[in-house]
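Let us practice reading a record.
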Amino acid sequence: MIEKHFTLNRADGGVDSTFSMEPAEMAQLVLETERAWQAMGKVSYGATEAEKKSIVFRRSLYIVKDLKAGDVLTTDNVRAIRPGMGLATKYLDIVLGSAIKQDVKRGTALSWNFLK
């Protein structure tokens, strides 16, 4: 919200005429406000269509040692490596300390389905 005093002509005088906008200035304010609004852009979450093709080149979480059901995930058996087929690396702190509910072979992309 913008509040601005307006006058048709400052020369007409008045208590707030010195800091009031004339019609051309108000039109410029409207134009520049619209430009600023457009410059803010639009927030979109998730990968765009162009980014989806490159997700495979990102790092993700992988099991790096053979694990048995009940084993706990640690920094020794989970790593962030390429390709990006496993859980996103942002989940590393969440999965560390979690137990595996089934046997998992080394080199398997980590998935929520493996966790208890």
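A brief commentary: The CA atoms of residues 66 and 105 lie 5 Å apart.
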